[in-house]
Amino acid sequence: MFTLRTKRLLLRDLVPGDVPRLHPFFSDRRVTRYMDFVRTRKLRQTGAWVKRAIRHNRKWPRFAYSLAVVSKKDRSVVGWIGFGQTDKRKRHLGERDFGFAFRRDCWGKGYGTESLRAITRFIFGTLKGKSFWGEHSLANPASGRVMRKCGFRRMTPPVRGIRVRSAGYLLTRARAAGAGLAATRLAGRRRARASARPRGD
Ligand SMILES: CC(C)(COP(=O)(O)OP(=O)(O)OC[C@H]1O[C@@H](n2cnc3c(N)ncnc32)[C@H](O)[C@@H]1OP(=O)(O)O)[C@@H](O)C(=O)NCCC(=O)NCCS
Asked: Does pTM surpass 0.85?
């Protein structure tokens, strides 16, 4: 199972058993107010959503990562984060984009930032990504704050593909490296040279 670990969290592939764990906040209007794509009302709607996400996660070559965010401390699901290849219509904005939502009682604890940093490291480090972008409603500034904390920079409006009352943010490989979330090529080469050196050199 695909898993990323941070100091306090595990980000892992969704499983069918997550339906009752996600439902309380997917059906909470204050959580999904700005995210119609995860908004559900009935448990069976969350069930259908999770089933579809698991199907996308299993496609190969893998283009989507829909993950439960689990607290290492008590193993509870505190949120959801998903990222993947940008839809064709928005590809000009960046290679990959993301969405995230956390249980209301877990807001403001740094989980959003910790999770976004983890997937950013994975995208630029392991997948060798070139660009990563996100979008949020202007009425939802906490989301933009999290992106800025992870090194994202606001795109200059108007941006083709971003709604008028929304803000688009972009993270390039160079900026991710500057934020310590991607190895620079130079550092990579230095490391390769260092590891090629015989011991005692
Ligand atoms: C947006 C969301 C994912 C952030 O997750 P989180 O775990 O609370 O984020 P963090 O604790 O890592 O950081 C939140 C930051 O936003 C800031 N913030 C909170 N409310 C804010 C507001 N109204 N205006 C500006 N900044 C705000 C916090 O102070 C914090 O920044 P700081 O660390 O510099 O103090 C979470 O609030 C959430 O699940 N919201 C509902 C779903 C959603 O809107 N998702 C995004 C759709 S684009």
From this structure: yes
